[in-house]
Amino acid sequence: MMEHNSNLWIPFVINFFRYLIMAGLPFLIFYKLFPASFSKSKIQDRFAKQKDFIREILHSLQTTMVIAVVGLLILKTPLSAYTLVYKDLFTYSLWWIPISVFLALVVHDTYFYWMHRLVHHPWFYRRVHLVHHKSVNPSPWASYSFHLYESFLEAMIAPIILCLVPLHPLSLLLFTTIAFAFNVYGHLGYEIAPRWFRHSFLFELMNTSTHHNVHHEKVKGNFGLYFRVWDRLMGTEYPEYVQEYDVIQDRRFGHIH
Q1: Which of 3, 163, 200, 245 is most exposed by smallest CB count within 10 Å?
Q2: Which candidate, 201, 235, 229, 203, places its Cα nearest to that of 107?
């Protein structure tokens, strides 16, 4: 019984260390060790203060705990019978692994876009989402910096995806890793997209660190997580986003457009 109970702490420990490593390493590289080397990639000229980093870390650690709790409730209780998680790798073709991860990202992006627009309603913004937007100039530590209520809203994507998309544990691991890595990139405060990205079809499809940074600075538009699709369809993309992206990339690489 004790061994079984001790296993329940594993998701908390994994989430805790994943946050510290995946947010901490970029912070160490870009903000502490080599800020001068990446100065041309900095999206906003100013830097956040120490108190901002502490606030972001404390709220993010709270969010990692909430995500772990929701995950346990879905996967380690009778509720798991309603999910589409499968353990035999060959239940579906191996090609289903990348396809299922992509579908999970699409579902997550759709959920996030509309949930994000909801919390920008003035009533929700003042009471809930403002915590996240205290990071006007976000750092990697801000990736999970949410009010407690918004932490639960963020975590609710888990049961939605697990009940809609058949996922092997490997797919689930890949999805959660990609999701968090992209979240850290969105809050990095630096644009690190390669030079070729600007003139590829991916630029028309994918978000960038600049895309989400503009959202934090302007507090409007650019509600998507991974993709630009919903923002462009709904007319909510910040009008000067592409120009601001080009300014940063021109500074990094010279005139590229």
Answers
A1: 3
A2: 229
Dist. CA 34–CA 68, nearest whole Å: 33
Query: How is the chain split into domains, by residue range?
Result: 1-35+49-187, 191-257
* pLDDT at site 255: 72
CA 202 to chain centre: 18
* Mean pLDDT, the chain, integer: 94
- Residue pair 104/164 in contact (Cβ under 8 Å)? The answer is no
pTM exceeds cut of 0.70: yes
pLDDT of 3: 42
Q: 224: Cβ–Cβ under 8 A, 6 or more apart, which residues?
A: 109, 112, 113, 116, 207, 211, 230, 231
Half-sphere exposure for 73 (CA within 13 Å, toward CB):
11
Bridge partners for 227 per DSSP: 206
What does the alpha-carbon distance between residue 218 and residue 254 come to, in Å, rounded to a whole number? 26
